[in-house]
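Let us work through a complete example step by step.
Step 1: write down the sequence.
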Amino acid sequence: VARYAVCLDKRDLDGLVALFVPDVQVGRDTTGRRALHDSFATQLATVGVTILNTGTHQIDLGGPGAENLATGHVYCKAEIQDGDRWIH
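Step 2: predict the structure and record it as tokens.
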């Protein structure tokens, strides 16, 4: 989660999409990191500075029969520049 926030704030889209599985679902009909990269680029094109602060991470690893499963919760406080105003 921290890497996601740092990559997004730095606009490191290559680093950001590397956090996802290679066949990530992007929208209804598209898959892959290249498509995700393009989607992020489009979405962030009109967004100013972002400051994502993450904390209070809770990660639960799967038990017997679910060794490859992890679930969790995290808090994120975002500050986003939108033209002359800041969204908090």
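Step 3: interpret the result. Strands lie at 25-26, 30-31, 50-61, 70-82, 85-87.
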